[in-house]
Amino acid sequence: MKIKILLADDHQIVLKGISFFLSTQPDFEIVGEAHNGQEAVELTAQLQPDIVLMDLNMPIMDGIEASALIAEQHPNVKVLVLTSFSDRSHIVPALQTGAIGYMLKEVDPDQLVEAIRSAFKGNIQLHPDISNALLSQLIPQQSEPKKLPRGEAIESLTPRELEVLEQLTKGHSNKEIAQELVVAEKTVKTHVSSILSKLNFTDRTQAALFAVHLFQPTE
């Protein structure tokens, strides 16, 4: 039996990347994609997925409100939050809606796969940084808090590497990036390799998913 998954995210590149990767898993079936919270609620009613992979910052209805409605109307459907927000002001309300877990978009794809499988079995799933954030509220700090993962690595990227990284979030190939930035395709390949090395990612999809929030306009 396959795990039926509904994806909810308003960023098309994120949806494309996650859908492509999860579709490679033999026990997963992507049954639908929602671009806002309201669509997530409506498609949950229509498709009855096992898991809703829910972003929080979406138009019309945000992920927290959508998660609460799904939990109320479809208690057998498990909501697993997948977002770029790691602050307690988002974590706590999301978990209070009844979401079974809270993962960050920078999560390793293989870890996300295992989190979905475990959530399907009814196990609570928390990204390691989220666990640390929650524990920090309970345990007195004995030392300086750790910096955000890969924060220093982002700062080490050159201006050109940042330009290439932004192109990756748009789903562009090396050839397309070379044309856009007016550089040789070989040069783009070198920049991509450097970016993956500095950010400690194994492929460009991971880097793109992680970097999406860096280039989103703040509201």
Protein described:
This protein has 219 residues and is an alpha/beta fold. The protein has 2 domains: 3-138, 3-Layer(aba) Sandwich (Rossmann fold); 151-214, Arc Repressor Mutant, subunit A. It contains 11 helices and 6 strands. It has a 6-stranded parallel beta sheet with strand order 2-1-3-4-5-6, sandwiched between helices. α4 (88-96) links the parallel β4 (78-83) and β5 (101-104). α8 packs across α10 (185-199). The longest helix has 15 residues, at 185-199.
Rg calculated over all Cα atoms: 18 Å
Using the alpha-carbon principal axes, give the shape: elongated
Give the total of domains: 2
Under the CATH scheme, the architecture of the largest domain is 3-Layer(aba) Sandwich
| Helix-strand string | EHEHEHEHEHEHHHHHH
- Give a short account of the largest sheet: 6 strands, parallel
The portion of residues assigned to helices is 40-55%
Query: What would you give as the CATH superfamily of the largest domain?
Result: Response regulator
Number of beta-strand segments: 6
Distance from N terminus to C terminus (CA atoms, Å) equals 42 Å
Stated plainly, the CATH topology of the largest domain is called Rossmann fold
Poorly predicted spans: 138-149
Estimate what percentage of residues fall within beta strands: 5-15%
Tell me which oligomeric state these chains represent.
single chain
Strand order in the sheet with the most strands: 2-1-3-4-5-6
What's the overall average pLDDT, rounded? Answer: 86
Structural class: alpha/beta
InterPro entries: CheY-like_superfamily (IPR011006), NreC/VraR/RcsB-like_REC (IPR058245), Sig_transdc_resp-reg_C-effctor (IPR016032), Sig_transdc_resp-reg_receiver (IPR001789), Tscrpt_reg_LuxR_C (IPR000792), WalR-like (IPR039420)
Protein name: DNA-binding response regulator
Domain HTH luxR-type: 150-215
Domain Response regulatory: 4-120
